[in-house]
Task: inverse folding
């Protein structure tokens, strides 16, 4: 591969690995905050034990996310020096705010929460975890502010060959940000909920700490039911925004080679021949793409070939078509994973209402394996978003090939060696994280086993009241 190819591969690999941990961290922080708030209100110590157990897994996720995120910062100077020089005045501002404000907020109160169990009042301790949850959300907001600007640059001017910020308020009001941030935040809550549902299912199959894990399962199910619906609606608005903001990405995500008539179908699956700009085989739902994009039965969707011609006219000769197959299938895998989570969450709620979920061991086994679904959905969503923007690193402003570091300063071999080093480092971190997860999950709750009973009434598992009573 070329130097550009190695740089893209390195950034893609490290970012996907980093993003494994971020959404779960955000989601778990809110779920733990809910549990501790219930403990403060009811004085039921099972909820405190639940918060401690899930807090251990949260801290592992947080630590790995921080370590892997640091390498993202280094790569802007190592592999993407021209990009950093060209847009650093804008791109660096939200990242600086994220580090100086949001990250310090969550880091400070994580310390207070971790070491404050016996030093703070129950109410004050609960406040610390809510502040941690707020900090994780603010971190996501500022990072997505930077990413949204790459997707849809606003509030800038070009001076002396560099992009300079002219309006910080315009950057914050970026319409891309306000469809991207809610979708990402809701997906993070859904990810944390399924992480908790999966591990709770595993523990329930083992009949270990049934009271606590039944309650954990029900709390996370309620969050999953709500967020699985909202993430679809918000994601739909984000996709509709692409009609005007990035028509090429939308066309590639649908493998739509030529502009549609007033009724555009949605392809469920397709065999894509990118070389000949055609799809030899497709299964389509008539008019659905038009309905999703315009919320009505008529509306023209631009095709890849037509957008390519427009971009050549606007930006000069070049190939402005992203990898269509990757964009198309990553989008559909994300949709499949999201739909599966929606169905599983609602079926779990149904079983709770019927007071049967402990009886359905096959369902609990399926839920144990469902832990893979949020990771799949998050990774595919990121790949679709970033690959679909290619060949731009900043849409319409800087091509990816122009953002890579000078070849004389950073030759391909240097990137290959650093990719190997990063991969070995990440492999060691992944091994350590999995080992710690298994240790925490295998141990279960740090609680008095006499207090963790195994009643058959699911409602009593969730609605337990009074001191140390299990229900």
Result:
């Amino acid at each position: 591969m070329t130097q550009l190819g190695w740089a893209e591969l390195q950034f893609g690999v490290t970012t996907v690995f980093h993003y494994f941990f971020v959404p779960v961290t955000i989601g778990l922080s809110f779920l733990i905050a809910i549990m501790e708030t219930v403990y403060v209100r009811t004085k039921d110590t099972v909820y405190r034990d639940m918060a401690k157990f899930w807090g251990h897994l949260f801290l592992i996720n947080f630590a790995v996310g921080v370590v892997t995120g640091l390498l993202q910062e280094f790569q802007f100077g190592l592999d993407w020096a021209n990009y950093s020089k060209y847009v650093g005045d804008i791109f660096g501002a939200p990242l600086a705010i994220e580090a100086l404000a949001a990250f310090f907020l969550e880091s400070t109160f994580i310390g207070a929460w971790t070491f404050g169990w016996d030093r703070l009042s129950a109410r004050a301790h609960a406040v610390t975890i809510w502040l941690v949850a707020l900090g994780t959300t603010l971190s996501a907001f500022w990072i997505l502010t930077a990413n949204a600007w790459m997707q849809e640059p606003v509030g800038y001017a070009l001076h002396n060959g560099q992009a300079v910020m002219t309006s910080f308020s315009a950057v914050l009001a970026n319409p891309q940000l306000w469809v991207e941030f809610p979708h990402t935040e809701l997906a993070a809550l859904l990810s944390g909920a399924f992480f908790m549902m999966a591990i709770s299912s595993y523990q329930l199959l083992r009949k270990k700490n049934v009271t606590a894990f039944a309650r954990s399962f029900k709390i996370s199910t309620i969050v999953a039911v709500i967020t699985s619906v909202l993430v679809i609606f918000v994601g739909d608005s984000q996709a509709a925004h692409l009609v005007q903001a990035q028509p090429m990405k939308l066309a590639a995500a649908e493998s739509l080679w030529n502009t549609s008539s007033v009724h555009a179908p949605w392809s469920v699956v397709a065999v894509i021949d990118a070389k000949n700009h055609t799809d030899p085989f497709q299964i389509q739902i008539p008019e659905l793409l038009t309905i999703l994009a315009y919320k009505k039965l008529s509306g023209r969707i631009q095709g890849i070939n037509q957008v390519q011609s427009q971009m050549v006219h606007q930006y000069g000769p070049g190939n402005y078509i992203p990898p269509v197959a990757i964009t198309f299938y990553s989008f559909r895998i994300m949709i499949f994973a999201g739909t599966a989570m929606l169905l599983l969450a609602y079926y779990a709620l149904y079983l709770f209402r019927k007071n049967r979920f402990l009886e359905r061991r096959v369902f609990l086994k399926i839920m144990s394996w469902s832990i893979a679904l949020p990771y799949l959905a998050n990774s595919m969503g990121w790949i679709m978003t970033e690959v679909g923007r290619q060949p731009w690193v900043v849409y319409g402003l800087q091509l990816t090939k122009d953002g890579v570091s000078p070849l004389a300063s950073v030759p391909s071999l240097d990137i290959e060696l650093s990719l190997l080093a990063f991969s070995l480092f990440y492999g060691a971190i992944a091994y350590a994280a999995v080992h710690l997860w298994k240790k925490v999950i295998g141990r279960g709750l740090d609680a008095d086993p006499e207090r963790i009973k195994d009643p058959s009434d699911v409602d009593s598992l969730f609605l337990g009241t009074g001191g140390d009573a299990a229900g």
